[in-house]
Amino acid sequence: MTLVRTLLIILLSALVGACASTGGARISEPDARIQQIQVDANGRWNVTVRLQNYSSIEMRFDRIALMARFDDSTVVPLNAAPAMTVPAESADVFNLQITPDAQAKLFIADALASGRSLPYTLGGKVSAAPGTGGARDYILDSKHNQLSPVPGLPGTLR
Questions:
Q1: Over the stretch 3-28, which tens digit does the pLDDT of each residue have?
Q2: CATH at residue 145
Q3: Strand, helix or coil at 11?
Q4: 31-49: b or e for each residue (b if 16 or more CB lie within 10 Å)?
Q5: How many domains does the chain have?
Q6: Is the pLDDT of residue 119 over 70?
Q7: Residue range 90-114: average pLDDT?
């Protein structure tokens, strides 16, 4: 009887172990934010974009096609091919040099001169792929973002 009970326990343990999940790969929608804007003396912007990978595996970011909207009429395109891999459940940044139009330059200059925060939204597409797999476009529509002047760093918003 004891031998049967022992064999039954071993058999049940083996069955439970065989059915246990290893967790698998979880692919989640990535996110993007403007981490910083530095305005140079000529009015060009060095934009630091933060790419967030919420997946349980690394993701390769091939392309972004985003629009930063600072108000109803000030829209700045952010297009790049970062070709970077972000580890699982992590984030990384890349820099993008842009020359905004006159309206955007004045809008940012006014915010910097007055020391006020700058709300913005970010929308568009982020193309990302798990590991070496094929890329997929993820739609991004983030609201309630904000950049503020950085004390001691003229021309910088974070």
A1: 666 656 676 666 555 555 556 789 99
A2: 2.60.40
A3: helix
A4: bbbbbbbbbeeeeebebeb
A5: 1
A6: yes
A7: 96
